[in-house]
Amino acid sequence: MSRIGNKIIQLPTGVELSLQNGEAMVKGKLGQLTTKIHPLVNLTQKDGALSLLPVDDSKMARSMWGTMRNVVNSMVEGVTNGFKKNLEINGVGYRAQVQGNDLIMQLGYSHEINFPIPNGIKISCPKNTSIVVEGIDKQQVGQVAAEIRRYRKPEPYKGKGIKYEDEYIVRKEGKKK
What we know:
It contains two helices and 13 strands, in the order E-E-E-E-E-E-H-E-E-E-E-E-E-H-E. With 177 residues, it is α+β, with helices and mostly antiparallel strands. It has two domains: 9-80, Outer Surface Protein A, domain 3 (Alpha-Beta Complex); 83-164, Ribosomal protein L6 (Outer Surface Protein A, domain 3). It has a four-stranded antiparallel β-sheet with strand order 11-12-7-13, with helices on one face. A three-stranded antiparallel β-sheet has the order 1-6-5.
């Protein structure tokens, strides 16, 4: 049985949850998010607390029980506090800046890379070698950060490229003479 699914989600003050036609909508101070609840999981709300239970004892129902609990918990956390990913740029001449609705990066190619900022995401560059991706949807923030990182992954010899702030790059030794 899922131990994650057993945990009860407490709704903070100012967060509302509504259930309609198998969809959960969470509304908070930062915005609102909607997700479809899997039909093998029941979501119940009682006195500001959410609990999820599987419909039956099948393997799929038990799998979706913990997954849906974490999805709903991420929605509640997102509309309350939001999510943030920090990226660092390493390399001579590598830099980034935000102009309007685009993130413009120079990453050692012969051209600039223009990355259009999606709706629901806020990107800022406190320094020209760091990028901060913020938003209320955990999946979207992670996906946008991964897409930005994909333009120039860090290489193992000098560590040049875009990496997550908490990521450790395993370095390789260079060629011997």
